[in-house]
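Fold Annotation — chain and its backbone
Encoding — discrete vocabulary of local shapes
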Amino acid sequence: MAPLLPTRILIVKLSSLGDIVHAWPVAASLRASFPQARIAWLVEQKWRPLVERHPDLDQVFTLDTFALRRRPRRWDTLRSDLARMRAFHPEWCLDLQGTFKSAVATRLSGAPFRAGFSADARRERGCGFAYSVTVRPRSTHVVDQMLELAAACGPLQRVLSFAFPIPDAVQQAVDAWIADNHIGAFAFYSPGGGWAAKRWPSERFGRLADLLEQRFGLAAVLNRGPGERHLDDAYRRANAIRARLFSGDVEHLGAVLKRARLVIGGDTGPLQLAAALQTPTVALFGPTDPARNGPYSPRSMVLRKTDATTYQRGDTYSPAMLAITPEEVAEACGQLLEAAPAQPVSPR
């Protein structure tokens, strides 16, 4: 049994952008339910900015498991990171990730009460050794599933809060960039994705940008993630409109998304962050299930042309994504624009 009134709770959610966004309500719900407790989060160093200013967290611990893939491997750094986490002395540890490395961290936390998902709900095998209790979620969406896991610890007050405080200096820098580039009202396009089967062709984003500029006068801001230059090139070949490229850290990304009239993308982290910030989003889904992984926002629309779901990492565009046309997406964008009044950009 979990302690009824824990004094220290550790959340383990290591990555990635969209997955961490979906886990934010767990921190808010734990804070509302156990106001006396100190709450900490263990996250990959790369994604620390997503949680370091979260209003419901007292501490953030990091791991840099990516450094172990490089040579020389920094085992000393990993041991130091784990030692800092253990020094927190959590009574509860909640593994919201369900991977082998998150399970190892959960076991090494030293918490007497360690909760994780049941075998059929985990992302990877071999995690059961880490948990003192497992939860088989009944909900469909991952946000609700993670809240179910937290509720297994004790009576939980659900708080569906997606807090992401953006520093004033960051927002001011983004507003200055928008003004300096004379962008005005714009749509934000996120053509990337974890693997090709989840993506929509960049050429179609180019055609969509033409339609939204013609119909609604929206400029185009194109997101460029690491290693995605080839997506930019394909977009530019399909579109005569000069898109402004955005490539920045997650806080600047959030500041740009807050100013967008619309965000359009596939099953990607930027789309999930935009939905959490209550920016209108049009989500393009193919092989992955939007009922489980879609944007958790009433200001979102999802387009999907299949009921077949798979999370296998295909390296080519899926037929389901190719079945979605730019004209259909433009129509969905128009419906959202009618429902969402324009938000003025803050002056410099």
Residues 206 and 245 are 13 Å apart (CA to CA). The chain is about 35% helix and 15% strand. The longest helix spans residues 17-33. The mean pLDDT is 91.
